[in-house]
Amino acid sequence: MNPVYYLYLASLLFTIGAAGVLIRRNAIVVFMCVELMLNACNLAFVTFSRMHGNLDGQIIAFFTMVVAAAEVVVGLAIIVSVFRSRHSASVDDASLMKL
Amino acid sequence: MENLIALLIAAPLLGAAVLLCGGRRLDRVGHWLGTLLAAASFVIGVVLFSDMLGRSGDGRTLHQHLFSWIPVESFQADVAFQLDQLSMTFVLLITGVGTLIHIYSIGYMEHDERRRRFFGYLNLFLAAMLLLVLADNYLLLYFGWEGVGLASYLLIGFWQHKPSAATAAKKAFLVNRVGDMGLSIAVMLMFTTFGTFAFGPVLGSTGDATEGKMTAIGLMLLLAACGKSAQVPLQSWLGDAMEGPTPVSALIHAATMVTAGVYLITRSGAIFNAAPDAQLVVVVVGAVTLLFGAVVGCAKDDIKKALAGSTMSQIGYMILAAGLGPIGYVFAIMHLVTHGFFKAGLFLGAGSVMHGMNDEVDMRKYGGLRKHMPVTFVTFGLGYLAIIGFPGLSGFFSKDLIIEAAFAKGGTQGWILGSVTLLGAAITAFYMTRVMLMTFFGEKRWQPDEHGHQPHPHESPKSMTIPMIILAFGSVFAGGFFAIGERFVHWLEPVTGYHHGEAPISAATVTGATMVVLVLGAALAWLMYGRRPVPVTAPRGSLLTRAARRDLLQDDFNHVVLVRGGEHLTRSLVYVDHTLVDGVVNGTAASFGGLSGRLRKLQNGYARTYAVSMFGGTAVLIAATLLMRAV
Fold it and tell me: Which site among A33, B123, B214, B397 is 20 to 30 Å from B403 CA-CA?
């Protein structure tokens, strides 16, 4: 199977993620879209690894997963605390630095 | 002897300082102190005069260097005085007439609670005027020039509770500023041309400069003279200046200050001699003013304004004579001195009449006063005969000599100027006879004043009549004393130079012609105002009469041309300022404001907007990188 199709898929996923980040208001959905974009990158890395015949891309994909896991922990904590203080998970409601 | 010169000025200056700063405790003695210091100045003047007579030739000029005023490298201005025959003449006139008018004012201002202040101002005037004529350089002269302007302003507006007086004072000051501008420009031109202001070097080296420069300086000096001496076109203030107390009109606006222009031109004779074009303008200004003032004097019913028109006209004679060059300088000054006597006398007489008539100034409400005020009548009458040039009296000699000198100018100009001066003599005889007849002859036309008091004309107190009598003596004898044996010519010749002009017609013819026009003018006045009764309310009169009553439309002219013109100019300038200048400034500010308003909208605090810009930025960067690769 031609690896380029995987790249197309990665691009599509990335675009969907980016569009979600820009369009959706709910912080959880935005967060999920960010994850989608990260994973689109992972897919691209793995594909490139396969195309070039070395493991560099796969290693970076692992790193990305670790970073994403850490980010999810911090991000979800922020979202929960924002929700507690504002009773809303909308990113637009958090447009001010202060309450 | 030189050291006395500064004392001449110091005495009245001390008086002004003490009287103006001394406060109410000096109210009871203020007028005596002021008069005493004026008299002291006169005595010093007489001492210096007798000393000057004791010397001869060039030795007569005295110099006193008091101190360096502004020493800055090549710019050297000194407070230094020069007393020569010309200054001496003025010193005696100013302090002499000044002292008499101080004495007169003691009586005239008796009921005025601000009399002390009045005497302070009079002393200030004397000091400034003496500084003007004694200065040995143009910068110090300018200082005195401004000083008399200030004193004139203060005294015209002395009764400042009257809005008319306050306005007249402002008007006089403003019009004078125009002339003063001329003098300051002339002084600056002198400095750039000669590198000094002192009379000696400036007047001694007029030949070194180009004629164009001399003409420019001359014209600027003439502008100054026009302002101070109320000559056309800066004449409009003098009539209104009669709002001041009558002694002020007599001293400042008839005898001394208004003649400062004649002094300036005579003193700067060397400059005018080197600039024939400027001289011609001087003559024209004099001739125009001499007729202008005379015509205005014919139509005025206000006794002081009629006399003010006459003053303007007589100074026109002097300016004309001064413009004739060395033929005329001496006669200009001679007429100035005799005029100082008779015009001061006439004004004091007018003041005496007003004093007796509840301050009424309208001559149509006088009439038949000769029986009630005999001293005033006789002194005023002698002044009248002197000013119209009755044979043997002062005006006869001094005016006749000017008319002769005008003819002696030569050529067509001589004939024109001669005729103008003769015509002026005729009109002088007319308006002065009119004043005389309306005031002292005919039936009583007295009207009660606004409080319903019927006037009870009475002779004025001694303090007022004695100065009038002394001035009447001057009016009668001064001219003859000066003219016989050409005394005055010999006296002034070393300073002003003298050149006897040959008139195309003999002196006897001139005198004869003057007599004829004099009789004609006086007879016409008698026909109009002596033979038939004078109506109490002024008739409508011809177009010329109505124009002359309005000072030949000088104020209307100033209003239309200068005031309106100025308003239009400022309005258009304001318009340009608002639209163009403000437009550029405000437009710049508004466009930056608008731009930043738009930029501000980008910073809306929504995380998604920043994400878009990050995305957009990244996309652009990548696109650019790819594009660069491809190229």
Answer: B214
Cβ contacts of residue B617 below 8 Å, gap of 6+? none
DSSP-derived secondary structure for B583-619: HHHHHHHHHHHHHHHHHHHH----HHHHHHHHHHHHH
> How much of chain A exceeds pLDDT 90, in percent?
67
Chain-centre distance for alpha carbon B257: 6
- Residue identified by tokens 């447009």 is A95
| Alpha-helix runs per DSSP H in chain A | 4-23, 27-52, 56-86
Domains in chain A with CATH codes: 4-86 (1.10.287.3510)
Residue B466 CB contacts under 8 Å (≥ 6 apart), including other chains = B103
Residue given tokens 């005008």 in the structure block: B406
For the stretch B252-286, pLDDT in tens is 888 899 999 999 999 999 999 999 999 999 999 99
* Distance (Å) of CA B99 to CA A33, B40, B85, B349: 110, 9, 21, 16
Q: Tell me how many residue pairs between chain A and chain B have CB atoms under 8 A apart.
A: 21
Does a cis peptide bond (omega within 30 degrees of 0) precede residue B233?
yes
Q: Per residue in B308-339, is it b (16+ CB within 10 Å) or e — as a string?
A: bbbbbbbbbbbbbbbbbbbbbbbbbbbbbbbb
Q: What is the pTM of this model?
A: 0.80
- Look at A91 and B607 and tell me if their CB atoms are within 8 Å: yes
Contact B611 A22 (CB under 8 A): yes
B230 vs B500, higher pLDDT: B230
Task: Give pLDDT, residue B449.
Answer: 76
As given in the structure block, the two tokens for residue B241 are 């200046």
DSSP one-letter code for B528: I
pLDDT in tens, B44-55: 999 999 999 888
Mean pLDDT of chain B: 91
Q: Give yes or no for a contact between A21 and A37, defined as CB atoms under 8 angstroms apart.
A: yes
B232 φψ region: left (φ > 0), alpha (ψ -120 to 50), beta (else): beta
ipTM of the complex in this document: 0.82
**Rounded alpha-carbon distances, angstroms, from residue B521 to B70, B86, B544, B551, B570:** 54, 34, 17, 21, 47
Residue of A nearest to B608 (CA): A22
DSSP assignments along B94-128, one per residue = HHHHHHHHHHHHHHHTTT-TTHHHHHHHHHHHHHH
Candidates B601, B602, B603, B606, partner chain A, best to mutate (most A CBs within 10 A) = B606
Which of A91, A97, A98 should we substitute to test contact with B (largest number of B Cβ atoms within 10 Å)?
A91
Q: Which of A22, A91, A95 sits opposite B615 (nearest CB)?
A: A22
Encoded tokens for B387? 């000013």
The chain A residue lying nearest B615, using CA atoms, is: A18
